[in-house]
Specification:
Aspartate Aminotransferase, domain 1; 6-stranded antiparallel sheet; 3 helices; about 25% strand; globular
Length: about 120
C-alpha cells in the first residue's frame, strides 16, 4: 500500500480530512507527517509518516488490543511520539495483512469520536 492509497482509504470515513501540521503537503516525498483527523473534533486517528525509508502509521488502540497486536505482528510496535499505552505504530508494508491494517484504521477512527455528554 502506498502513502497516497493509505491517505485515500482514511478519507473514505465520514468527517475525515487530511492535515499537515508540521509542514509539507500531499505531494511531498513522504518526509512530512500527514495527520488524518475528524472534522467534528479535530482529533487525529492516523498519523502517517516515513521513517528510514519505511512507510509507517500511528493508530489509536484499546490498551489490551494494542498489547495483543504487538505480540501477534513483528511490525506493530508502540507508536513513535505518542502515548505508548493507547497508540500503536504499524509498518505499512510489513507483516500486517492489508485487511487487518484497514480494520485497525477503522477502529482508531471510532476511538477518536466525540464523546457524548452525560446529563
Amino acid at each position: 500500500m502506498t502513502r497516497r492509497e493509505l491517505i485515500d482509504f482514511c478519507l473514505t470515513f465520514p468527517d475525515a480530512y487530511e492535515d499537515y501540521p508540521f509542514g509539507g503537503d500531499a505531494h511531498s516525498d513522504g518526509g512530512s507527517w500527514a495527520v488524518m483527523r475528524r472534522r467534528s473534533n479535530k482529533k487525529g486517528f492516523a498519523h502517517i509518516y516515513g521513517q528510514n525509508g519505511d512507510l509507517r502509521v500511528n493508530l489509536k488502540c484499546d490498551p489490551l488490543e494494542a498489547d495483543f497486536l504487538r505480540r501477534a505482528f513483528r511490525d506493530v510496535t508502540p507508536a513513535y511520539h505518542m502515548n505508548k499505552i493507547h497508540w500503536n505504530g504499524v509498518s505499512v508494508n510489513g507483516d500486517v495483512p492489508e485487511d487487518e491494517l484497514k480494520r485497525m484504521i477503522e477502529k482508531s477512527y471510532g476511538l477518536v469520536k466525540r464523546k457524548s455528554k452525560k446529563r
